[in-house]
Design goal:
By secondary structure, the protein is an alpha/beta fold. About 10% of the residues lie in helices and about 30% in strands. A five-stranded mixed sheet has the order 3-2-5-6-9, with no helix packed on it. Strands 10-15-16-13-14 form a five-stranded mixed sheet. Strands 1, 4, 7 and 8 form a four-stranded mixed sheet that branches. Strand 5 and strand 6 form a beta hairpin. The longest helix is centred in the first third of the chain and has 23 residues. The termini are far apart. About 30% of the residues are buried.
Length: about 270
């Protein structure tokens, strides 16, 4: 009896300890962030080990670093979406720098790097877009960027959902029900012939849906506050479950090192 009483008495403390540990453990959902990965090779094509890869966010100044393994492979995961400067450094080889590398939410961007033997004060700067072909994951998705949201016409109450029309397999977005049923002025669409009720939209990881009108999103961020919209329409990953037609991930902008603002008017 004594042993039993001691066990029960300590159960609340054990539960509290487990809760505290779970709070300090980092829990990342890839769907909210992006990944840069690739391989580093020398002029002969052999893998380069212990090369230092540094990615600097051009908007916030945040820097992440990784080193290549024995196969010359590297990966920087859970990167905040934005534009990055990527620099590769390894003893005996010229540094390689690549500017304006785009990191998108729910996307793995492969950048393979070739380094050259170093001469006096030599550095290599690479320019050009990353390959369009996605080889590191199997989902089919489209991305709507902040620039597109700002520069393309947005009918339907300046709603970013108007641009879902650009996604292959989507029917034209349309307004449904009465205005009182949709204070956010949500639009609805069918993806690849599936029911509109099976689309699932997340804003910064939180599902936004009317339980009694599942084809309506509960909240639509202002156009100026959106960093990107990732729309997966087939073979999306496990963390994007609860979706049948499209798994839509909306990422809002975070702070940068520059002061900025916007204004608009309805007429």
């Amino acid at each position: 009896m004594s042993t039993s009483r001691i066990s029960y008495k300590h159960l609340p403390w054990a539960a509290l300890a487990v809760s505290a540990i779970s709070l300090v453990m980092p829990l990342h959902a890839q769907v909210l962030y992006g990944t840069l990965l690739g391989n580093v090779a020398d002029p002969s094509g052999a893998p380069v080990t212990s090369a230092r890869i540094t990615a600097a966010n051009l908007g916030t100044g945040d820097t992440r670093m990784e080193t290549t393994d024995d196969r010359g492979s590297w990966a920087l995961r859970n990167l905040q979406p934005g534009n990055y400067r990527l620099r590769t450094e390894v003893a005996g080889f010229a540094p390689v720098e690549r500017n304006d590398v785009r990191v998108s939410a729910n996307t793995e961007t492969r950048i393979d790097i070739s380094v050259a033997l170093q001469s006096v004060s030599q550095a290599v700067e690479v320019s050009g877009a990353a390959p369009v072909l996605q080889t590191d994951r199997g989902d089919i998705h489209a991305e709507i960027t902040s620039q597109q949201i700002q520069n393309l016409p947005l009918p339907g109450y300046r709603n970013y959902q108007s641009l879902v029309n650009l996604v292959p397999g989507a029917t034209p977005a349309r307004f449904q029900n009465a205005l009182m049923d949709s204070p956010a002025r949500s639009l609805t669409t069918n993806i690849n012939g599936t029911s509109r009720n099976t689309n699932n939209t997340r804003i910064d990881g939180a599902t936004t849906v009317f339980p009694y009108l599942p084809h309506h999103t509960l909240y639509n961020p202002p156009a100026e506050s959106i960093e990107s919209v990732n729309i997966a329409t087939n073979n999306f990953t496990a963390e994007q479950g609860i979706a049948g037609g499209a798994a839509i991930t909306v990422i809002t902008k975070s702070g940068t090192n520059h002061i900025h603002g916007s204004a608009f008017e309805y007429h």
